[in-house]
Amino acid sequence: MKPLTTIGWREWASLPEWDIEIRAKADTGARSSAVDCSSIEELPDNRVRFTMRLSRKTNLNMTLEAPIAMRKHVRSSTGHGRDRLFVETTLRLGGREKKILISLTCRKRMIHRMLLGREALSGDFVVDSSVDHWATPRKRKKSK
């Protein structure tokens, strides 16, 4: 069994199947993972089209389609429950890759576009909540 990979409370996560790199917050209090989406549209043949908001500071969005992996009632941190669609993709973080389920939801009021919950973290990662970006270096702003 591989030793656990230490990550910080937030990291740059890659979703290689979608060619996306996104800042994600590790949240061991959340069971499932979530990504910030708008325009979630169910399609025929158990598929979904959704637009991921990739940045809070810019209008960088990406529209994707994926098979619906699961439908589940999820209670948010505020205690409100909603039915959500989940899709499956590969997470690449800290030298590891694993398949994870991600719920599609509106997180536009949240600071981080992606939340990594216990189901995605368990068995592979341990979170050092005192550290920001342990496994992935911070992106440096380009100087003029």
Biggest beta sheet summary: 9 strands, mixed
Poorly predicted residue ranges: 140-144
CATH class: Mainly Beta
Q: What's the structural domain tally?
A: 1
Overall mean pLDDT: 88
- In total, the number of strands is 11
Shape: globular
Label the CATH architecture.
Answer: Beta Barrel
N/C terminus separation: 46 Å
How large a portion of the residues is in β-strands, by DSSP E? over 45%
CATH superfamily label: Acid Proteases
CATH topology tier name: Cathepsin D, subunit A, domain 1
* Rounded radius of gyration (Å): 15 Å
> Structural class of the helix and strand makeup?
mainly beta
Count, helices:
1
Q: Give, in order, the helices and strands.
A: EEEEEEEEEEHE
Helix content: under 10%
Describe the SSE topology.
Elements: E1 5-8, E2 10-15, E3 20-26, E4 33-43, E5 47-53, E6 61-67, E7 70-75, E8 81-93, E9 96-105, E10 114-116, H1 118-121, E11 125-128
Parallel strand pairs: 1-11, 3-10, 4-9
Antiparallel strand pairs: 2-3, 4-5, 4-10, 5-6, 7-8, 8-9
Overview of this protein structure:
This is Retropepsin-like aspartic endopeptidase domain-containing protein. The structure is a single chain. The chain is mainly beta. It has one domain: Cathepsin D, subunit A, domain 1. Helix content is 3%, strand content 54%. The protein contains one helix and eleven strands; from the N terminus they run E-E-E-E-E-E-E-E-E-E-H-E. The strands form two sheets. Strands 2, 3, 4, 5, 6, 7, 8, 9 and 10 form a nine-stranded mixed sheet that branches. It has a two-stranded parallel sheet with strand order 1-11. A hairpin with a 4-residue loop joins strand 2 and strand 3. The termini are far apart.
